[in-house]
Amino acid sequence: MQINFNKISNDEKDSLKNRIHLGLIELEQKESRRRKKKRLLAYSAAASIVLLVSLSVFVNRTVNESSKPQTALEQFAANTKSTESNVDLENISLVLQDQQTIAVQDSSVISYGKNGEKVTVGKQAINTNSNNASAFNTVRVPYGKRTQIVLTDGTKVWLNSGSSLIYPTQFDGSIREVYLTGEAAFDVAHDKTKPFFVKTKECNVRVLGTVFNVSSYLEDATVQTALLQGKVRITYAKKGFLNNQEIEEDLTPGMIATINKDKKQIKVERKDVASILSWREGYFTFRSQSLNDILSKLSKYYKIEFIKGSDLNLEANYSGSFALNENLNSLANTLSSITNNTCTVNANQRTITIK
Amino acid sequence: MENTTTDIFLWQQVKKGDITAFEKLYDIYADVLLTFALQYTNEPTIAKDAIHDVFLDIYKYRSGLAENVNVRSYLFKITQRNVLKKNKASQKIFSITSDYDSVILKELSFEETLIEEESNVELNSKLAFAMEELTEKQRKALFYRFNEDKPYEEIATLLGISIESCRTLIYRCLKELRKKL
Asked: B92 and B14, same structural domain?
């Protein structure tokens, strides 16, 4: 049986979609003209002259940024450099409103008091010096480290390697919102009067007292939200056939939503969520994930680079678990035994060659 | 073929003129239908035109669409029909300018043709789904090997892998495809 393995390029697929889009507009216009004619005929039967309101489908084809006004938090996040990659960062840092930067020990807990005026970093108590409602603090975590934050409403946030979180010291408004770059797990304190929002560059996650994980690394092709408990609603902007659409997806526990940044499509699956949150406990657990994904996560969590052999099968699936405080040698050994590849460590350059 | 609840829902919405649902349906099926269409023609243009016609016709004649239809089967069947029609159309042009008397090939009975076309759709649609799950590399490898008859050395160079990995890659792909068909 002769099979055609040829593939139509993404560019061609996009222009096909545009053709169909245009065809749709034409159809709509034809239909509305026909409707107008029908109505005209009906009205002209009567003696009186009637004003017809013309129906036209107005379609905006240019790329439109979301027309929703940005909140103070989003503007702050856009203007501040701290949302860029944390590649050069050495220590976990907490940046207060007055730009004071405090170094935080690995695996410390950053805990805010009830009125947002004091914050405890590990064992140290510090004044936040916040003087107004838009007092935003930022925590930045370099690759290879993690930290835990307790926000002023009691919400617990575990911030993973290579991530930043911007949040107000006080939740004064009608909603609670935080801005995330990278990956974090949330255990949101119940407050029916103030819904909790996690905002990232691509999407917003609206929360109703729950435990979930959001992964939105700049260098990844997808944004992933995994829900363990409770309920969340994810909203993201999509350029559609009509205007810009706001797509909403509700998740129930055990579901994972993955948004493809390029295609602007969302995929919702029922998968194992617990292992995605395992890093809070200090483990990186993976079930049937491709070697490519595993290595990419390991790079982030341990701050190492992998040199991949040319014969390496990156699509092979593996299941396993790594303790996050392992040294490079035991990491390499475990990786070898799981995948049956040879792993050589170069401690000076922090690389592992796998082939 | 499965008729998922999403498909049924979207279908009903499209019948009502819901453009968002139409777009969602397109996004779900466009890629796999293109791969499917390419099994009936070598010309990407014909495949793209077929998908274009199929979807615009669906919207145009939406009020006349059947309510309880298996959306997936329907989409594949009409795509096949559209591509074959286009093939015949281009063939007619060819035969008019042909110098030779038309050669009468074995003609199947009308029923046999129908049955063959139906089982054809089943198989090719399964194939299209399976192919969509291949990675870029896997698909290129299979294309070079079976559609362009390139030798393993050349394919290995084009993909930047060793000849051994190339063989393994292709062997494993075929195994996977066979499993899914």
From this structure: yes
